[in-house]
Amino acid sequence: MRTELREKLSSSLLFIYKDEDIVKETLSLVDQVLDQYTDIPAKGTWISEKDSILITYGDSLYRDGESGLKTLKSFLDEHVQDAISTVHLLPMFPYTSDDGFSVVDYKKINPDLGDWEDVNALAKSYDLMFDAVVNHVSKSSMWFEKYLSQEYPYNTYFIDCDPDADYSSVTRPRALPLLTEFETTSGEKKYLWTTFSTDQIDLNFRSPHVYAEILDVLLSFAQNGARFIRLDAIGFIWKEPGTTCMHLPETHELIKTYRMLLDTYAPGVCLITETNVPHKDNISYFGNGHDEAQLIYQFPLPPLTMFSFLTGNAEKLSRWADGLDEPVYGTSYFNFLSSHDGVGVRPTEGILTKEEQQILVDATLKNGGAVSYKDNGDGTKSPYELNINYQDALASPEDTDEVRIARFLAAETILLSLQGLPGIYIHSLLGSRNDYYGMNTSGIPRRINREKLDADKLSNQLRLGSNRKVIFDEMIRRIKIRKSQKAFSPVAHQKIIFDDQRIFALERFTDTGEKITVLVNVSSDAVHVHTKVKGYDLIADTPVGDVVILEPLQCMWILGDEC
């Protein structure tokens, strides 16, 4: 390790551990890890308008007798090709629960999905994002088994707690017990920190050995083709008694240390933080713009877009988007509407009133979804997540197929238009609906949006005509249009336009003169819009004047200048 890097890392570690002996031990362990990674190829340049990310499980598509990753690659090669630049592979490791988020071994691929050769084959056609689920591991992991036998250093890997202490300040994402009782092989009882479930045991980042293990995991991901590494539930990783144990200064400093090491030993690999929290806390993970995460999830976007279409009023979404700071070069927002998880409610705190949040909850329940709640620590609970397919989340019972699809495509057009890197969930790309069978047979609400699809039947649906084909073809077409326009680059500027509350409108423009005016009608009304722009609507492929009638749910990308 270079002297300058060692000094910088040492300073950060001293801030975290407050003990010079622990810092020295950590640096020694870090050196041992770095010795294994001396030739990781540098990744490409910063993201552009040509970049978008497909979010998928490795087995979202299946074919009898074929591993999941092979099936995924063949489907992408046939149907998606270069429309999408990057594939986010949700946890692809052996696991015991939570659909992959209870990892048994970070260095192995779930055999149902394939092996590292399959991952590397996919990496030849697409950039990849890997999931670093590093807040916790499965209780079936080797690390935890060795902890139960109290074998050094594994006896330092987990957080042994006093069950009688006061944990009322701790932020709880799920209404489950914070501590879980385990018994070591010698019969000693241990009460361990389990933020998410009794099968997901939180790691103890106070241990230098845990710090080094996670560095090893991150570098191994980079070595195996990851351009992006998603830090799952990262806001929870540092625990401090008497605090919320969320977004603590040590958490931010830990991310900064991993960033500085990746920048040196795996240049071009980007960290993206997953923190389903209010906006102010979320954007804190940019650090100073150069030292922490390169990308952050834009969590308010899904619920605010949903609210806009449910109410036919884009004012809340527009006000929020207008208040966004423009990221410095080298950082960006990761925009998404749907994912393997549900739609978060907490990110709307301070934006929507409780009555307005209830509109989201009521629509979710009316349209067949479920709502999960968080424990507030005072005996009360609040809506935490809406579990529903996004197409169904926007729907009204009286919708025809045509109207429902138009509303969904309009929402996705907002996603593709905003400044940042768009992430498109595979079930959004494929026009899926609520999977009641998956949710009801498993008892897991999130599985309403995690359906596994027969790849051959899906291909037939996309060839022979179906609602899936309508959505898929139009999504691919709009993604390709976006790729061709520099005004949609993450580094292009953004200006929100306030005119009619029924219209979400903005300008995207570059320093070199490219400009696109975006208009999305979120209502069921036809709206006259004075654009002050004459140009060409890229979506309809037709010229437009400075006054247009925007039909219900119609979208326009107007390429042109002020008249």
**Largest sheet composition:** 8 strands, parallel, barrel
Helical content class: 25-40%
Mean pLDDT: 95
Alpha-beta content class: alpha/beta
Strand order of the largest sheet: 1-3-4-9-10-11-12-16
Q: Could you give the count of β-strands?
A: 25
Distance between the termini: 58 Å
Strand composition percent:
15-25%
Oligomer: single chain
Radius of gyration: 24 Å
Q: Low-confidence spans: pLDDT under 50, at least 5 residues?
A: none
The coarse overall form would be: globular
Number of helices: 17
Overview of this structure, please?
This protein has 563 residues and is α/β, with parallel strands linked by helices. Helix content is 33%, strand content 20%. The chain has 17 helices and 25 strands. The strands form 7 sheets. Strands 1-3-4-9-10-11-12-16 form an 8-stranded parallel barrel. The chain has a 6-stranded antiparallel sheet with strand order 18-19-20-25-22-23, covered by helices on one side. A 3-stranded antiparallel sheet has the order 13-15-14, covered by helices on one side. Strand 18 and strand 19 form a beta hairpin. Helix 1 packs across helix 2 and helix 1 packs antiparallel against helix 7. The mean pLDDT is 95.
Question: What's the topology here?
Answer:
Elements (H helix, E strand, L loop, with lengths): L2 H15 L2 H15 L18 E4 L4 E2 L5 H13 L5 E4 L26 H8 L3 E6 L3 E3 L3 H7 L30 E5 L5 E5 L6 E3 L5 H16 L2 E6 L17 H17 L4 E4 L5 H5 L11 E3 L3 H11 L3 H8 L9 E5 L6 E2 L9 H13 L3 E6 L5 E7 L2 H4 L7 H17 L3 E5 H4 L6 H7 L10 E2 H10 L2 H17 L9 E5 L5 E7 L5 E7 L5 E4 L2 E5 L4 E3 L2 E4 L4 E8 L1
Parallel strand pairs: 1-3, 1-16, 2-17, 3-4, 4-9, 9-10, 10-11, 11-12, 12-16
Antiparallel strand pairs: 5-8, 6-7, 13-15, 14-15, 18-19, 19-20, 20-25, 21-24, 22-23, 22-25
Helix pairs in contact: 1-2, 1-7, 2-6, 9-11, 9-13, 13-17, 16-17
